[in-house]
Design goal:
Bound molecules: beta-D-mannopyranose
Largest sheet: 8 strands, parallel, barrel
Number of strands: 13
CATH class: Alpha Beta
Number of helices: 12
Radius of gyration: 22 Å
Structural class: alpha/beta
CATH superfamily: Glycosidases
CATH topology: TIM Barrel
Strand order of the largest sheet: 1-4-5-6-7-8-9-10
CATH architecture: Alpha-Beta Barrel
Length: about 375
């Protein structure tokens, strides 16, 4: 009898331990165990927000658009819909050498102001980093073999690489809201690594090297007191057919908060439309599954169709490709406008602007219940418990 009671008590203990650990697992905590309170709250609120829909994002949204630059309060999305995007993308490229402007010419002083403005009104900021090649000093697209090895501990460029991370760390620690708190950032380093165009891409980097690079970066930022980052793992659509392909370079649950991919539509022909729709649909399925299994968030971190040359890209192509999967956001790339630096020079933009031929389709997209823009997201109070 005594023994039986002991067994029953032990059984109750075991059951309660298990249920405690299940409860703990359902309270989502970011990869950085010392994340600031606002970062933790944002992370948890993003799990709730995705039940309501997905946020729309735009790169460099407040800095410039088609035919304008640096007009305070302006955004092409706002010109078209009367509302701002909910997610705002920025890039750290050129902070490596402490330059005044990022790789697309946005002064970091202005970028900082935009990031803070976004936080103050309850929007979400995300950063990519087109980091120069530390081995050659050329740009991010210089995918010289051996670059990742050169920046890892023991490599010839390790100290230089750390000094670049220092510059980014110092910058992240200057981003503060009017409440005096550090602005939480969705940080998406080493993006599109399944392609072959950046120095961290898989054609010149092994899974072990990539994981080491990622972990080093996260641990280094933490050691520098940077605790306002949520980490976004990001592939390209290139070379990702299956979940195993997607996960091949995954550094581990303790280093990642969100899983994502980038994909662009490459042409108007039926076959290109179908390819974009099918690939996006398949990849959204993969990130949704991974997010569910690993208790993470997911997003389409970059997408678009340059110049949006047909009437129903938003309400049909993109909408159908996403379907009813629960992702946090979709971000379209920047509205540079006329790009004289490419051959042949042409208009380079991914969001509509006032007067765009198919802006009506975007307004319909804006009105869909599942797309979330700034006004709606402001009501979520993403930085408050
Ligand atoms: C590319 C283009 C380039 C830009 C780069 C980094 O897709 O928009 O003009 O320099 O992204 O933002």
């Amino acid at each position: 009898m005594k023994n039986n009671i002991a067994i029953i008590i032990a059984g109750i203990f075991l059951v309660s331990c298990k249920s405690t650990s299940q409860t703990t697992a359902s309270v989502q905590l970011p990869a950085d165990k010392n994340a600031t309170p606002e970062t933790v709250v944002l992370y948890q609120n993003l799990f709730k927000a995705r039940e309501k829909g997905y946020m729309f994002g735009h790169q460099d949204a407040l800095a410039y658009g088609v035919n304008w630059r640096y007009e305070e309060g302006r955004s092409d999305i706002k010109d078209v819909t009367g509302d701002y995007p909910a997610v705002y993308g920025w890039d750290l490229g050129r902070i490596e050498n402490k330059e005044d402007k990022d790789l697309d010419g946005v002064p970091f002083s202005k970028q900082k102001h935009f990031v803070e403005t976004v936080y103050n009104r309850g929007g979400v900021n995300t950063f990519s980093w087109h980091m120069n090649n530390p081995l050659t000093g050329k740009d991010a697209w210089n995918n010289e073999p051996g670059t990742v090895a050169s920046v890892l501990p023991g490599g010839a460029k390790h100290e230089l690489f750390k000094s670049w991370l220092d510059n980014a760390a110092a910058y992240f620690l200057t981003l503060k809201g009017k409440d005096g708190k550090l602005v939480p950032i969705l940080f998406r380093p080493y993006h599109e690594f399944t392609g072959n165009w950046f120095w961290w891409c898989k054609n010149t980097t092994t899974p072990e090297q990539f994981k080491a690079l990622w972990k080093f970066t996260v641990n280094y930022f933490e050691s520098k007191g940077v605790h306002n980052l949520l980490y976004v793992y990001n592939t390209s659509d290139a070379n990702v057919q299956t979940k195993a392909d997607f996960m091949e370079y995954y550094p581990g649950d303790e280093y990642v908060d969100m899983v994502s991919f980038d994909i662009y539509q490459g042409g108007e022909e039926a076959e290109k439309r179908e390819k974009f729709a099918a690939d996006t649909h398949r990849l959204v399925g993969i990130i949704d599954e991974v997010a569910t299994e690993h208790h993470k968030l997911s997003s389409i971190a970059e997408t678009g169709f340059e110049q949006i040359p047909y009437a129903t890209w938003w309400t049909e192509t993109l909408t159908n490709a996403i379907g009813n999967r629960k992702i946090s956001y979709v971000l379209v790339w920047r509205n540079h406008g006329w790009n004289e630096y490419v051959n042949p020079p042409h208009m380079h933009y991914y969001a509509p602007y006032k007067g765009h031929k198919y802006e009506a389709d975007f307004i319909k997209y804006y009105k869909q219940p599942e797309t979330l823009f700034q006004k709606e997201v402001t009501k979520f109070n993403l930085y408050k418990k």
